[in-house]
Amino acid sequence: MNYPCGRYRAAASRREMLARCANGFGGVALAALLADRRFASAATLRPSTELADGKLVSHHVAKAKSVIFLYMDGGPSQVDTFDPKPRLTRENGKPFGMKMEPTQFNNNGNTLGSPWEFQNHGQSGIPVSSLFPHIARHVDDMAVIRSMVSEFPEHTNANYFLHTGHGLAGRPSAGAWVSYGLGSENQNLPGFVVLNGGLIPPGGLDNFSSGFLPAAYQGSVFKPTDKPVANIARSEATDELQRNKLALMRQLDRSVVEHLGQHDAIESTIRNYELAFRMQAAVPELVDLGNEPEWLKREYGFEHEYAPTKIFAKECLLARRLVERGVRFIEMTCPNVSGDRWDQHGNLKQGHENNSRAVDQPIAALMSDLKARGLFDETLIFWAGEFGRTPFAQGTNGRDHNPFGFSIWMAGAGIRGGTIYGATDDYGYHAVENKVEIFDLHATMLHLLGVDHEKLTYRFSGRDHRLTDVHGHVVNEVLS
Prior knowledge:
By secondary structure, the protein is α/β, with parallel strands linked by helices. The chain is 32% helix and 15% strand. It contains 10 helices and 18 strands.
């Protein structure tokens, strides 16, 4: 090359070239990191209510990196789990002493005392029923909210409300909102995973839907088996053939976009195919539990005599492994206990005992395992059903749906352990102190993830939507 001075410059040595290009290499790396949702800061966001693809939203310092939602399908009874009511025991079998609200089936009976004893546990002395001897050991890490309310007394609408903040199908699930706002810390796994223990809740897959958000943010349903994801096995003989096939599909899709413009169905399909390709290596490694010690599997319940406990044990262990791999939102559904979920309109004692037997030991082991690995303080865990149950009998030995006051609990990142918040009346029927709505639960969850629930929005149908709609406040009293 001729320089203006008329002299040729000698070729640079390899060492000189690396020294001169160092900043350039760093710039290339920075560009890749800024395109990664894990590393892009709030400063890279456009000043718009709609997030730029590939960006990370963060409004304040986050306490939690991941969420584990222990979904108790059917509605556990608050007065039989975390909200003891001595008055029910005293008046068991007598006519109910309050006005009865309209219930789902209206086959109302007399006052029904709890068949289980409550004992105080931990330094906090929080009472827990004998249904949960293992979880009870963790009460000092839990905030029990006794004043949850719902707007719906029927399973399908109440499930939509719990999952999406809206009582009808078509809205994005909380997991989809989290995945949309924060993405995943793992490029090879979805940001929102549903571990299906065998029971899809009433309302179906719409509970895990992305709604009007881009389809790439919907929940990916895994099963706790050796083949957890359907249709993910490689269909081509070699990686090269499959890459070529995906490249051709991408080229064809882009040609359609050039002619018709951007379209979510096409864009999300491209992203999902590419993710599925990466999952072919990541998922087998995820479900390979060969490196997990046998004693730990026993702690979770892998060798339990009750088959549903074994299923939920694997769900819980997989949840921990998903948290380790940077998945943002993990929801776990209940195993089939050959009964009606937690929905005991009759045979309350056997039904609730079967359900608690399935989940109690695995949940306690999950909490202990997260602590041992230093993950508990950065993982938000919450346990909830869609509503509670009546303090009076349905028929003679069941309980009907009760959305007027029920219990949930939260633990882990940013939660003030050993806390009881809110209260129901003497019968455990209505929340009478510090009512907490589903919107408040969602606002608190997003707050712990570093997100202001009023600012995480998506423009659809002419207005900005959010998970909490126009409601919700952070329940600061349960935060550390």
